[in-house]
Amino acid sequence: VQLQASGGGLVQAGGSLRLSCAASGGSFNNGAMGWFRQEPGKERQFVAVIFRNGYAYYSDSVKGRFTISRDKAKNTVSLQMNSLNAEDTAVYYCAADQRIIMSSLRTPAAYDYWGQGTQVTVSS
């Protein structure tokens, strides 16, 4: 199974970007798909995840600004990012797993599949 992320780029503070991640070679329709981000020299951090029933969870830092969604027919997950600020600058990774328990949804090690990462840079 491969995950291919796209949609990163350079945007001014206050702007928006939409990230997408397509899964190939397998389906995560019964599992969870999500996004993490990582700044240079820092640990990978949870951003958002969406489960098969549509329930979504967000980190406190993005709640109210980012929206995660999935298209089961296309086997994709998207992250709409609004009101971006400089603190959102990072490499964003999509992640997926067939089984994620609630206590582990914010833990990178709980996800078996990862995309290659896409850079998001927000200029202030």
General description of the model:
With 124 residues, the protein is mostly beta strands. It has strands at 2-6, 9-12, 17-24, 32-38, 45-50, 56-58, 66-71, 76-81, 90-97, 113-114, 118-123. Strands 2, 4, 5, 6, 9, 10 and 11 form a 7-stranded mixed beta sheet that branches. A 4-stranded antiparallel beta sheet has the order 1-3-8-7, with no helix packed on it. Strand 5 and strand 6 (56-58) form a beta hairpin.
How is this fold's topology laid out?
Blueprint: E1 2-6, E2 9-12, E3 17-24, E4 32-38, E5 45-50, E6 56-58, E7 66-71, E8 76-81, E9 90-97, E10 113-114, E11 118-123
Parallel strand pairs: 2-11
Antiparallel strand pairs: 1-3, 3-8, 4-5, 4-9, 5-6, 7-8, 9-10, 9-11
Label this structure with key terms.
7-stranded mixed beta sheet; 124 residues; single chain
Task: Give a brief rundown of this model.
The protein has 124 residues and is mostly beta strands. It has no helices and eleven strands. Strands 2, 4, 5, 6, 9, 10 and 11 form a seven-stranded mixed β-sheet that branches. The protein has a four-stranded antiparallel β-sheet with strand order 1-3-8-7, with no helix packed on it.
Order of helices and strands: EEEEEEEEEEE
What does the oligomeric state look like here?
single chain
Radius of gyration, in Å, reads: 13 Å
Gap from first CA to last CA = 37 Å
Structural class: mainly beta
Low-confidence stretches: none
Tertiary shape: globular
Biggest beta sheet attributes: 7 strands, mixed
Give the number of DSSP strands. Answer: 11
Q: Give the amount of beta strand, in percent.
A: over 45%
Counting DSSP H or I runs of 4 or more residues, the number of helices is: 0
User: How much helix is in the residues?
Assistant: under 10%
* Overall average pLDDT: 95
